[in-house]
Amino acid sequence: MVNPTPLHKHSGFHVKLGFVPLLDSAPLIVARELGLFDAEGLEVELVREESWASLRDKVSFGLVDGGHMLAPMPLSMSLAEDRPRVPIVVGMVLSRNGNGITLNNTIYNHLIMSGVDLDDPIATASALVQLARSRGEPIRLASVSPWSCHDLQLRDWLASAGPDAQSQVQIIPVSPVQMADAFRAEAVEGCCVGEPWNSLLEYEQLGRILHSGHQIWQNAAEKVLGMRADWTEQHATMHRHLIRSLLAACQWLDNPHNHGLLREILARPDYLGNRINALDSHPYSLFHPRLHQHFFRHSANFPWISQGHWLASRLASRQQLGKVTGEMVRQVFRPDLFRDAAASMGIDTPVIDSKTEGRHQKPFTLSGRYGPVSVASDRLLGSQLHDWKSKVSD
Amino acid sequence: MSSQNPLRILLIDKDPERASQVCEALRLEGHDVIRQRPDASGLTAAVARDQPDMVIIDMDSPDRDTLENMSTLNNHAPRPIVFSANEPCDRTTMHAAVKAGVSAYVVDGIQPERVRSIIDSAVVQFESFQALKAELEETRTALEDRKVIEKAKGLIMRHENCDEETAHRMLRSVAMEHSERLAVMARRVIQITEGKDRQGAGSVQRAS
Prior knowledge:
The structure holds two protein chains of two kinds.
Chain A: E1 14-19, H1 26-33, H2 36-39, E2 43-48, H3 52-60, E3 66-70, H4 73-79, E4 88-96, E5 100-104, H5 105-113, H6 121-135, E6 139-143, H7 149-159, H8 165-168, E7 169-173, H9 179-184, E8 190-193, H10 197-203, E9 207-212, H11 213-216, E10 221-228, H12 229-234, H13 236-253, H14 259-266, H15 305-317, H16 326-332, H17 335-343, E11 364-367, E12 372-375, H18 388-391
Helix pairs in contact in A: 1-13, 13-17, 15-16
Chain B: E1 8-12, H1 16-28, E2 32-35, H2 43-50, E3 54-58, H3 63-73, E4 79-80, H4 91-100, E5 102-106, H5 112-160, H6 164-177, H7 182-207
Parallel strand pairs in B: 1-2, 1-3
Antiparallel strand pairs in B: 3-5, 4-5
Helix pairs in contact in B: 1-5, 4-5, 5-6, 5-7, 6-7
């Protein structure tokens, strides 16, 4: 048999992807280190960015073709009204969950003493507002970046305590690398961030994880593969191979047997480096058991239009976007592209593109092209329902 | 220059040398430059205290997201230049800034030409710093290369029992054959001969 020429021997099969060194950048890193990009004939250059703002700017000006993005980021870039738009296409979700709301020990202990049910986010939000009122000083909580699920989840959680929360809780922007220092200096008393930052705060005994993002929005899309729309049009084949290689990486990541090797790979200086070394002695160190972070199971990678619309509606409620129609979301979230790539690997996908978000308390099945497909639960805080049928026009 | 008031510019750059250069250039243009590394109590507090008209920050700083967040929370906080509503910069200027690693945040209402001239100065400083670093790196590699080539020649001389000139010619013709740089081929020669020496010792034993 004659081996076909690998694609990357042809000119133009080179792609540049940006990533921010977080635990959930693992799919890109693993795809590169395990040779999964090579297997698809792609020559991928990974570019590490220290902030989402830099990644956004480099994508906007064509210095990278796309990369690991916060799920709301492509919507914010593509649909902005008050600034130049950069259309982005989401061909797959890279990870779900992984955020945590972590409080310093003082506030955490106050909540325990108040007798509130710590498993009930609506009750804890009220208790927190109550605490601020009784001490006569707002609680200071840190949020990392706008157009992120952690920011939107933190606000949703606080909003559940009623309109009072706005005056009783002060939100301060802090970068995650400075979070531990900010906790030590008591500049902030809590935060909502992604991993490994919550685990690190717990490990250094600076705070405790009160809630997982999972308790606010179950199995929310956390990071996505966002590529510049003009790139995906010019490189449809490459995009499909890119999705295939990352899907293989996600599948590998969900197998706990691989986590030893994963830790070793992530600790390399080009990736997360010594940021995760502190977690080395802990058996669950990579994936905190409370955060339900995952990459593949229950159709995790399917880019639901309804979830894109949910995120857009949350951004709109924060005045970060105007009114968003289903048609607008469809330009960004592309389940059709994902479905084709997955099918070529024998991975079945739901035949529908949208569902009522918030309705499912447990994993459930939907019809796929070839049989039933398992889909993760999607409960939203306060039993909200996001009914796409009334909002997303076809 | 004009009678305009100086602008207050907050400069955040993890590279102290480069920061000094940028700072000097902007002060020469008549601006007030605040140089500081924000501590844990935070950039938010610093921006509230100093109320800069503009923030220049290197692209590799994780504080960029903090500034982005600030601009969504507070109408008076500096906004990212790439999003500025009155488009003070053309795309070419912004492209050059992103490429050089300069990010800028600006409060509303500052004249676009002043913003552009500040960004241009910062970009020039960043680029010249980058060029200097590249030059240093080049010199370092050149020195390193020369050492490697000398070592490879020595090994060839010993193995082939020849003089230096012959060794050099051999090395050069192999490099040309493989269309590789001389230093690359020299490294390969070192790898192979050193490996062979170790293996060689083993094979002699097997033969006896």
